[in-house]
From TrEMBL:
Part of the whole protein covered: 546 to 810 of 810
The protein's name: histidine kinase
All residue ranges annotated as the PAC domain in the record: 1-37
Histidine kinase domain location: 41-260
Organism: Arsukibacterium indicum
Amino acid sequence: VQLTVTPIIDGNNTISGYLGIAKDISERKRNEQLKNEFISTVSHELRTPLTSIYGSLRIVNSGVLAELPPKVDKLLQVAEANSQRLTILINDLLDMEKLLAGKVQLNMLSQPMLPLVQEALQAIQSYADQYQVKLSAELASAPLYAAVDAARVIQILHNLLSNAIKFSAEGSTVVVRLIQLRDQVKIEVIDQGLGIPDDFKSRIFDRFSQSDAASNRQHGGTGLGLAISKELALKMGGEIGFNSQLGQGSTFWLTFSQTVTEPAG
Ligand code: ADP
């Protein structure tokens, strides 16, 4: 039950009573839970056949089976690209549902952040090449430790980097910085891309939110990446945020409290 209590103020500015409203929100909660369970069940059911379709298309397109007529080849590549998109969407949906249901187990460990940033950069390199965007890194040389789940930090960085790349112009540079800020470790992903419209800024971390439908359809994506990233960052005790100016670019940042490094020996 949700309770709201409001004082009733009379003409002399004194409180003459209180107005209480009790709202039964158990039904709303139940509906929310049913919706999440539905998303989860459907996503699971879709994932198995889709994995098989995607896998088969990848084999056919790898050229190991036979030389295909160019038109067939083209169509199969379109099918592969789209089944990959669906796979990403379904995995994101399942991830989000697990996070909301509190079913995500984090493997928290105090560790140096540098290798995580380097791994994320390495993994995204071919995507950057595809968009003809350069990657540049400014990484603190002193070891910076934080207590995090390594795989989840890499997942967040992957989201931030792929956004920075896909919303940048060809030939521009995306910079990744790893710095110490007082007692915090901060990672910044800086692009010189499209920037974010002011009226979209407050919704950017919402599920399924995308700023411009037309340009997003061209770029793909699900509108779930930042929602998942935020949930994960908060669950690990970190923070995530951004600064952006439309037409100038955006800086997304991720911070964690610094942990003390193990003394040598
Ligand atoms: P997706 O990238 O799958 O659409 P996200 O949740 O990662 O979903 O991002 C939501 C939206 O926020 C994007 O569709 C885009 O409109 C906007 N956005 C995110 N990152 C950037 C960025 N670096 N530059 C410009 N717009 C961005």
